[in-house]
What does this fold into?
Amino acid sequence: MALPLVVATRPFPPKVWKQIAIHAHVVCWESDGPATREWLLDHIPEAEGLYCLLTDHIDQEVLRFGKRLRVVSTMSVGYDHIDMPTCTSRNIPVGHTPGILTETTADLAFGLLMASARRIVEGADYVRQGHWADWKPDLLLGQDIYGATLGIVGLGRIGQAMARRAQGFNMKVLAVRSPRQNREASESSGVAGIHDESLDSSSVTFVDLLTALRESDFVSLHVPLTSDTQHLIGASEFHKMKSSSILINTSRGAVVDPTALYHALEQRTIGGVALDVTDPEPLPASHPLLTLPNCLVIPHLGSASIATRSLMSDMAVENVLAGLRGERLPYCVNPEVYQ
Ligand code: DGY
It folds into this structure.
């Protein structure tokens, strides 16, 4: 019997090739950079499985061409690049990689907070550029982190892991539920929704977005990108923040309105920003944001540790193989397809 075809927009890591090859015939995009749309549309019609990344737009057109698809598996926890309603209406289960990247991403978010508060990257550049001639009492002064107030927008897995880190710095944590968590909380008579047992829930105060923006020294975004959260932070939100406040974004670039962000930084409406994710992404080197000294940008490295990326690809492979076997995906975004 012919093996089912899996289209992969990146080569699988060598360690999983053998396992995949037993169960499927694989066509994968071999060149550097994201798979082109043309390539994807060319190959998807015969595919029963799709293994993709967050840089692939799995929209209606791709899904329409992919008539034989039985499983879509993304090597990411986020799935805003996949047209979920279409997948669900066609009973195509979608797999992702939740949980495994929580701590790694929270490490990076807290690292960005520290780097921007204490101007670490500026300091390193200063030394490399040969400016370090003496010790100056007012050189590259930053902000204290210990004891400051951190607003966490979206208290899901990564938001809670961020709150746990903040506890170690004696920070006051103001948490804002994501719009989805708000709906869940109102349906379950206001339960806080803290699932992380090592987080001392009494150290977290739930507030609305406005309060968090007004009172926080740092605001860190941890909401998924949905129609509710697109441009959640725009001009009017920046005007509510403290002029010294630093925004950290490790969620999705489009949660922040990029034009409003540029103006807020340029006019010093806020103190600074540290971004792991941008809109557009990748951010071109010529982008105006990169001319601003109070803007720190890194290239979507939230889950980029050797161990975590390896576990993510394992989970994504487990999902694709389960889908090909007709079994329930172990990490499924739309379990309703099984009802
Ligand atoms: C994800 O998985 O969605 C992150 O953004 C990248 O690891």
About this structure: The chain has two domains: 5-100+306-338, 102-297. The chain is about 35% helix and 15% strand. The first strand starts at residue 5 and ends at 8.
